[in-house]
Design a protein that fits this description.
Blueprint: E1 6-10, H1 15-29, E2 34-40, H2 46-58, E3 64-68, H3 88-102, E4 106-110, H4 120-135, E5 153-158, H5 164-171, E6 187-190, H6 195-203, H7 206-210, H8 214-219, H9 223-230, E7 232-238
Helix pairs in contact: 1-2, 1-6, 2-6, 3-4
Length: 252
């Protein structure tokens, strides 16, 4: 049975590697088509170049950028609106166009909290992706955006409550950490065999390493700590209206 194709949609360069790098590498290694859409940063910026290298490592093709500005970094897309400020229908249409073009079986994005940090761009990416995954399958919506395509599943990258204490050592006790009850997690994926690729992709975001963001913290961890903290990825399956005859699952 073929491994389902996968399109990941995340807010910033590095989110794809931190949140779903293992699943992306795992699906690519199994021969599936994989790709990533990133909501913020322009194509001619250093972080977009870092993203291209991370995706090469993960086997996820070339960057697909919506090109909006990061909520906290105006220089990320000069002359473009912040992602959170852009008209919702415009953002949904642009993402639906990518979904129809790539035609994924599975779409992966941030959970409703926006992952552990709850960044506003993460939260908005969740909203836009949920809407676009549904809209892409409706032919009367955005008829100029390509032939309709309904993904068979939408998975939300998340963290269960039980994982947070160990992660506190990395993210710091004072920072917010949004997580969900363990019973809400519907897919727990062991990405240990692909951890080296995942970490290499995270570290490809060199500007984030240099400024001491989470990739920089990970760069300073010993291998055993990296494995303990990042060899498992957690997801919540979000139900889409679909005519697919069977469930399509993440490889776990």
């Amino acid at each position: 049975m073929p491994v389902p194709s996968l399109l990941a949609v995340f807010a910033h360069p590095d989110d794809e590697s931190l949140s779903a790098g293992g699943v992306l590498a795992r699906h690519a290694a199994a021969g599936a088509r994989t790709a990533v859409v990133t909501a913020t940063w322009a194509a001619d910026t250093p972080r977009a170049a870092e993203l291209a290298e991370a995706l090469r490592i993960l086997g996820a093709g070339k960057p697909r950028l919506l090109g909006y500005a990061d909520a906290r970094v105006p220089r990320s897309a000069p002359g473009r609106p912040r992602f959170c400020d852009a008209p919702l229908d415009e953002a949904v249409r642009r993402l639906a166009t990518h979904i129809r073009e790539f035609r994924p079986d599975i779409v992966v994005t941030h959970d409703a909290y926006g992952g552990l940090p709850g960044h506003p761009d993460h939260v908005h990416t969740h909203r836009v992706t949920v809407l676009a995954a549904q809209a892409a399958g409706l032919g009367q919506l955005y008829p100029d955006a390509g032939a309709p395509w309904q993904p068979q599943a939408l998975y939300l990258a998340t963290h269960p409550h039980s994982a947070v204490p160990a992660l506190r050592d990395v993210i710091g006790a004072r920072k917010a950490a949004y997580s969900v009850p363990d019973e809400q997690v519907t897919a727990t994926v062991d990405v240990g065999p692909w951890l080296e690729q995942k970490i290499a992709a995270v570290l490809a975001h060199r500007s984030e390493v240099e400024r001491g963001a989470l990739p920089g913290v990970i760069a300073g961890l010993p291998p055993d700590a990296r494995e303990r903290l990042f060899a498992i990825e957690w997801y919540i399956r979000h139900t889409l209206v679909t005519t697919a005859p069977a469930r399509t699952e993440l490889t776990a």
